[in-house]
Structure formats: C-alpha cells, structure tokens
C-alpha cells in the first residue's frame, strides 16, 4: 500500500501496530515524514528492522563489548541526559571521569600519582589522535627551539589499526609503517633503526595487534630506542596503543613490562569498550607526566559556567559510558577482571586445541600469551580444497561472524581467520562454534553438492 492510499485521518489510538499507516505504507527512507506516528508502531518497526543485523552475541570478529549487566543498562538510561562536556552542570560525572583516569593511570603504573593526566574519549581512535598530536607538538617545539625545520614529521609503527593512518593523514604526518617480517606477528625491535630519524615524532607499539592478537615487545622496542639514542643522540618517545591489551595485560600478564614502568613510554591509549568491558563509546588516553601533554593542546572553556580544561576532538558527548566504566571497575575489581579474562583465555586455548586437531589449519596465535583470542591460517592453501573466505560464508549460515582477511604488507599472501573471546562468550558457545567449524570443513571438502547431503556417498 502506498502512503496516498492510507486513510491518514483515521484515529490510530487503538490500532494494532501492524495496521497503522506507518506499518501499512512502509517506513519513509528519503524524506522526513509529514505526520507523527504512534510510538509503539514506530518502535516495533525499527526493532524489527534491527533484527536483520548480525547477532552480536555470535559476532566473534569484534573486540567490543556486546554484553553488559542489567545495572549497566540502568545507569546508561539514567545518564541519557548528561553531557559530559558540561563539567560545571554535571560535576559528579566529571568527578567520576577523573576517578577513572586515576584508576587507569595507576593500573598502568603511572609515576604521576595524584597528578595523573589523561581524559576519556569516544574510543581508542580519538585517544590515538590526541596521543599523536601531543607527540607532534612536543617534537615541533623541540625542533623550533633548536632552530631546525619542523615541517616533515614522521611516525614509525608496525601493522597498526586504521586510526593511525587517519591520524597521519588528518594531521599531516608521514606514516612509516614497518612491513611484517616473514614469521612475525608485529613490529620487531631490530627493524626500528632503519626507519627512525630526526623527524620522527614517536614510535607506536601495539599491545594487541589487531590482525594477529599478539603483543608487540614494548620493553624490547624501548631498549632498542635507548640503544639508538646512545648511538645517534636521537631521543624518540614511545606511545603504546593498548586498545585491547590495556585492559588485559594488567590482569592476565601482570609481570609483563609494557606500560609506564618503561621509562620511554610517554602515553598510552586503550578502549574502555573493548576488554575494559564498558559499553560502546569510551576510550582513555593517559600521559606519563603533565609535561608530556603540551599546554597549547588544552583549551580552557568557560562559557558553560566555570573554567574547565578540555582536550578532545569532540565537544558534546554522552556521560553514560564513563559512568558505566566506573561501575565496571568498582563492580569487578582487579580480581573480577582477572577471573573474567582468565575464563576467556582458557576458552580461547580450548578452541585453539580444537582448531589444531581439525587438520587443515596452522595456528598463528593460540590465545596463550596475549589477548584471549585465536587466529589461524590454512596449512596448505593450494591443496586444502577450500578458502578461508568460503569457510567464513559457511559459518555465517549458522549466524557466526568469523572474519577472514589477508595479513598486512609483506605477508599479504597469508589469509587468516580470527576469533575473539570476550565477556559474554562461554565455553559452551565456543564448543558449538568448533562443532560448526568441523561440519563446515567436511562439507567444503566433500564433492557432493550441498543441496543433497542425504545422497552423499
Ligand atoms: C580497536 C583498535 C583501535 C581503534 O579503537 P576504537 O576504540 O575502535 O576507536 C586502535 N588500535 C588498536 C590496536 C585496536 O585494536
């Protein structure tokens, strides 16, 4: 039925949702409708449409939170109206943000104590931009003080997430991405020397490489930069992109030295909405000491009443995710995070064992030492009889979202598959996935057409 055929004068107060005009005529897609519609009907129709999205509980591709306790839902609802930029109107939300900054700085062994400097962001991407900008401003100030040109900054990194490519392009910095060595899953220290020079604003080390889930060796990267400084005089700061590992390593690998315990680390970013277990929309950027954050980058905003320092790309932003992050830190505590993550890591390792036993796969990362995740590749892609892309499609028919993609530069011929085990993904669910993987492999490697499984052999 088209809209002009619908009797718009009818009182719809008692209509069934599916006989209202908005349901009968189809939802407007290009123009804002002229008339209002009953809220129950609009809700039902939008809700129905969203049901066609992938099932987030079966999304094993994302690092992001897909499950939260009912208390988190309640707090998010209660914070709907709170604009976290209005620190004067919502001082307790601002106070809660400051508490999170202190707790996270302390978790990462910040030497600044009560003077910890940092802020919440919309995620690691914004936090990375802020970290990168601070590196760029500090480098430029030093170059200018030395009377040297400061017009060709570069940033050195391994296989980074796209946010660093964005940073480089948006803020006019040359990105020197070091290619992967044949068997490496990330940047290796001995590669650095060839890429850094006097225009290097910093090196980015990744705690939890997006592609392989392995950690880059932050302490060894710093040691190599120490050696480079000793030999050449270049003093190059290190930023750690701990988007996922920042909320894993402190709990699962407390002995691993990757954070502010490493002198050369000047700033760290992490996503609260990944293993921080907060709902989508929050990240954190923390600087080693106040002098690591150039004051030109901090704006004093006073027209909302009171003078407040802000360092952010956004202005208005919801406060709920920050409050939910605080709730989660209090609710779980260090031991709670450890238990949830240890369970995830054990589940990842169990999946790794299953995958290894299936035959055609070689594990690239077995979930044992870094993130609770598994990645694998085909041992012999030419003889396997199927591709990982086909396997992704097969799994998708059961609702699983397990991505297949090529590795970054110099290893792009290697296609891999990756599963992330996070909060809300149980051992049982992962074993059901393993069953479906086995079934999919046997279907793909048998010659019978899939429409007639009963006639096979
Ligand atoms: C996810 C991720 C990002 C981007 O984080 P968002 O919170 O999604 O903006 C950056 N770096 C790494 C290593 C990541 O895993």
Automatic annotation (TrEMBL):
CDD domains: DOPA_deC_like (cd06450)
Keywords for the protein's UniProt record, in alphabetical order: Decarboxylase, Lyase, Pyridoxal phosphate
One Pfam family it belongs to: Pyridoxal_deC
Keyword Cell membrane assigned: no
Reactions catalysed, as given in the entry: L-glutamate + H(+) = 4-aminobutanoate + CO2
GO molecular function: glutamate decarboxylase activity
Residues passing through the membrane, by range: none
Classification via InterPro entries: Glutamate_decarboxylase, PyrdxlP-dep_de-COase, PyrdxlP-dep_Trfase, PyrdxlP-dep_Trfase_major
Cofactor requirements of the protein: pyridoxal 5'-phosphate
EC assignment: 4.1.1.15
SUPFAM superfamilies, A to Z: PLP-dependent transferases (SSF53383)
Superkingdom field: Bacteria
Family of the protein in this entry: Belongs to the group II decarboxylase family.
PANTHER family in the record: GLUTAMATE DECARBOXYLASE
Protein name: Glutamate decarboxylase
Organism of origin: Streptacidiphilus monticola
Lineage per the UniProt record: Bacteria, Bacillati, Actinomycetota, Actinomycetes, Kitasatosporales
């Amino acid at each position: 039925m088209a809209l002009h055929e619908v009797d718009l004068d009818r009182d719809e107060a008692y209509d069934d949702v599916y006989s209202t005009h908005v349901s009968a005529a189809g939802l407007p897609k290009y123009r804002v409708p002229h008339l209002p519609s009953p809220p129950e009907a609009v809700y039902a129709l939008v809700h129905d449409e969203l049901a066609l999205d992938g099932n987030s509980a079966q999304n094993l591709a994302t690092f992001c939170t897909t499950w939260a306790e009912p208390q988190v839902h309640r707090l998010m609802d209660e914070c709907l109206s709170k604009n976290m930029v209005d620190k004067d109107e919502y001082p307790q939300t601002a106070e809660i943000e400051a508490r999170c900054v202190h707790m996270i700085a302390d978790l990462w062994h910040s030497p600044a104590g009560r003077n910890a400097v940092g802020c919440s962001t919309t995620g690691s991407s914004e936090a990375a931009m802020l970290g990168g900008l601070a590196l760029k401003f500090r480098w430029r100030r030093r170059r200018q003080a030395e009377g040297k040109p400061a017009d060709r900054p570069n940033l050195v990194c391994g296989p980074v997430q796209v946010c660093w490519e964005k940073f480089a392009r948006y803020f006019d910095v040359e990105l020197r991405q070091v290619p992967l060595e044949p068997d490496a899953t990330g940047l290796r220290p001995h590669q650095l020397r060839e890429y850094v020079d006097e225009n290097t604003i910093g090196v980015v080390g990744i705690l939890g490489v997006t592609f392989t889930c392995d950690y880059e060796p932050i302490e060894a990267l710093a040691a190599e930069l120490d050696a480079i400084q000793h030999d050449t005089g270049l003093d190059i700061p290190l930023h750690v992109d701990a988007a996922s590992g920042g909320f894993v390593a402190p709990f699962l690998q407390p002995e691993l030295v990757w954070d502010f315990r490493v002198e050369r680390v000047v700033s760290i970013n992490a996503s609260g909405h990944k293993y921080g277990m907060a709902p989508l929309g929050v990240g954190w950027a923390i600087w080693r000491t106040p002098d690591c954050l150039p004051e030109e980058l901090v704006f004093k905003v006073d027209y909302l009443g009171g003078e407040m320092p802000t360092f952010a790309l956004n202005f208005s932003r919801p406060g709920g995710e920050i409050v939910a992050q605080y709730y989660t830190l209090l609710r779980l505590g260090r031991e709670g995070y450890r238990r949830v993550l240890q369970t995830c890591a054990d589940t990842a390792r169990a999946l790794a064992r299953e995958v290894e036993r299936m035959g055609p796969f070689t594990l690239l990362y077995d979930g044992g030492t870094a993130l609770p995740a598994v990645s694998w590749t085909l041992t012999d892609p030419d003889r396997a009889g199927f591709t990982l892309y086909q396997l992704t499609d097969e799994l998708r028919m059961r609702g699983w979202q397990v991505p297949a993609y090529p590795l970054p530069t110099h290893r792009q011929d290697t296609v891999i598959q990756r599963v992330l085990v996070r909060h809300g993904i149980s051992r049982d669910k992962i074993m059901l996935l393993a069953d479906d993987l086995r079934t999919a492999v046997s279907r793909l490697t048998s010659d019978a057409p899939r429409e007639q499984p009963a006639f096979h052999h």
